[in-house]
Structures are given as structure tokens and as C-alpha cells.
Amino acid sequence: MDTILKINRLAFAYKSNDRTEQKKRGFENYSLTLCRGERICLSAPSGSGKTTLLRLIAGLERPDSGTIELYGKLAYMFQEDRLLGWYTALENLTFIGCERARALKLLDAVGLGDAADKLPRELSGGMKRRLAAVRTVAHGGDLLLLDEPFGGLDETSRALTAKLIHDSFRDAAMILVTHSPADAELLGARIDDRPFIAEC
């Protein structure tokens, strides 16, 4: 199988906010290899660094040591919706190059077909979350990073959104961060509960 992500002996520590520059807990000697089609769910308590690991993979943080190799295109769904507030739901998709017909089909798939011409401020929290998921699908990629993707969604919306992600990224590698084992099951992700945080 094709390797999509290779992390080798990753180390990262958080600096404290005081003047001592003392380092707090962080990653130490963490390694991971993901192949095409492989899906994992990171299972760890809040504040243990799951989101930081995604940010390191995406290049938004720099590791202290170790390497991260990505082979292919990255798609990242953040904890925050990060929608373009001055664009409609449809325009949030076409702005990233999604053709109008496909964008409308994707919106329909998660029950947002009637909201295509609405601005994000006119949408409920759950609707914005679904739109963020649709935009991630529209972007596409070989590695999908999902950070609490179904927060605030009811059971029906969660099922629709999970199905769209599952089917759209069937051949991609996936890293899911969630506190819900049910979310991992919906996306076909195996639980990875290895400790990756250590005292520095």
C-alpha cells in the first residue's frame, strides 16, 4: 500500500507563559505511518495534545525534532468552522474551485440544499458545522485531518455528514480526533490509544 504519512521520532514541547521559558508537557519520540485508505482515531484526554499533533502534521507548528513526511494533498477540518463570512454557503465552496453543480450536490447531501444562498451568519451552529465538512470534502485530499468534526450535530445530521466524508475519502488516509467512539465507528476509523504525550 502507498504510504501517505510518515512521522519519525517526533518531539515537541510547549513553552510556559512565564519568563523562565520552562517547557511543559509535549511529544517525545512519537512515530506513526499511515497508508492510503488507513483511518485512525486518536483517543486521549482533553488537553493531551491531539489538536497540536494535527497542527504539526499540517505545518502550523514546528517540531523540536523528528520528521513529518506527507506524500500527497492535505485536507484539514479544524475544530472551528473557519467559514468565509462574506460569502454564501455555495460561494464558500466555489471559492476553493468546486464546480457549482458539484457544490449544490454536496450541500444537498447534508441537508443544506435550501441554504445555498445564505451567509454563514444566517446559519445555525449545526448548519455551519455541516458546511465546514462539505468544504473539506470539496477540497479533497490524500490525507484528511478531522478535529471534532461532528460537534453540535444531532443524530441525523451527524449520520449524513459522516456518510459524505466516509464515501468521499474512501481511498484517503485519515486521522480523526474525537471523544466519541461512535464517531470513529461512523467513519470506519480504528482507535489508536497509544500515549504520545510525555513529561519533558
Structural overview:
With 200 residues, this protein is an alpha/beta fold. Helix content is 30%, strand content 26%. The protein has helices at residues 50-58, 89-94, 100-109, 125-139, 155-168, 181-187, and strands at residues 3-15, 23-35, 39-42, 65-70, 74-77, 143-147, 173-177, 190-192. The strands form two sheets. Strands 5-6-7-3-8 form a five-stranded parallel sheet, with helices on both faces. A hairpin with a 7-residue loop joins strand 1 and strand 2 (23-35). Helix 3 (100-109) crosses helix 4 and helix 4 runs parallel beside helix 5. The radius of gyration is 18 Å and the shape is globular. The relative contact order is 0.22. The mean pLDDT is 89.
